[in-house]
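Narrative summary of target 7.
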Amino acid sequence: MRITVVGMGHLGVVAASALARAGHHVTGVDVDRFRIEGLKQGKPALHEPGLEAWLEEGLGRGNLCFLDTEEFSGNLGEVALVATGTPASEGGEADLSQVLSALHWIRSLQPGNTAIVMKSTVPPGSGSAFAQRELRGLDVAYVSNPEFLREGRALQDWMHPDRIVVGADRCSQWAVAVVKKMYATIEAPYLVTDVTSAEMLKYASNAFLAARISFINEMAALCEEVGASIDAVSLGLAMDARTGQQIHPGIGYGGSCFPKDILALQYLAHAKGVQMDLLGSVASVNARQRMLPLARLRSRFPGGLAGVRVGVLGLAFKPGTSDIREAPAVDLIEALVQEGADVAAFDPQANHAARKKLPACVAFSGSPESAATGAQALALLTEWDEIVGADWAGIAGIMRTPRYVFDGRNALEPEVMAELGFDYAGVGRGRSDRLAKRTADLPGQFPTQLQSA
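Modeled conformation, tokenized:
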């Protein structure tokens, strides 16, 4: 198949490279010439494990190319896949300007017999409006095909999805067959529904996952007060088939999806006169949780943080990506600087992006050990292997007292940290020694997939 992917952000680049790897002839298009030039050299803007290798394969075979919108001419192919961003506006509403620009560009090419496949996350009801406005009079079919990719695991999620959702109206059923042809190399169950239901499913999925994160974080807060172990609680919940896979507490969700999708869903509900109290609580809990590292540091240094050397380990909102959008580390560092702390930071992939956003006084380090040198406190905010597997015995020797470590992802073993001489604190662990072992006494079929909150 000949496919044009419009929008070369994280989603678009993954889609283009994956579809080329499946044997299709793919052209990736974007208005950003600088971004396109980087992709022509096989260099994506964001880090994603394995993505550069996929790009190299496609470029080498010659069935993957990248053009800016001014360079593109000719036929869009059987599929024009839209993968532009839909960030939140100041009021919380989804900003559809990039999507609309993509549709206007597609319209200018006068496509014929083409399936317009919407991968971008757009509010329920948007697709029907696009079909009546932007695509009216064209010989095309509009299909909603939401993505469910996780940054850091996007390639695996593309190749092994839990489901493929296709939303199409009755007059566009021929496009469903086109989409299935596009995914012919992928084995997954299909959910074929109408456009608006497919759009709603995407938002509902993200909202549900965000709710799980806020729930376990509230449980962790109560565990600390009553002396329970959130490790045991989360394990026990996961052993019940009704409650889903294990999810760990942490410092809240971030990234480019959950925060803006929760806002967009709240905005839509308000506009439609639907009261959704739970969504508001999910967002409120998350906002509070993101400030937990700062609260813990203030508590540990009651004399104030001015002059305190703090090492921040992890800047990306999760491991496996360089994305710092809505990353808790950014908020923490800005607050620490305002309170006069001396901040050093390390991330194996996000240092470059963070340097552009954070205050100039922040010292960026090339290793966890460098960020910890002379520090009185460390805040572990992203559970990269390079951080969790660092030489913690050596780190203990280069820190200054009190050697306080706030583990915002419960990624370290409390007993080990205490033996090494750290003043350790996790989330929902308190200072209890009644911590559940993560691998002992578990049934053989216990789920191994973990979610970090």
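The domain at 2-193 is CATH 3.40.50.720 (Rossmann fold).
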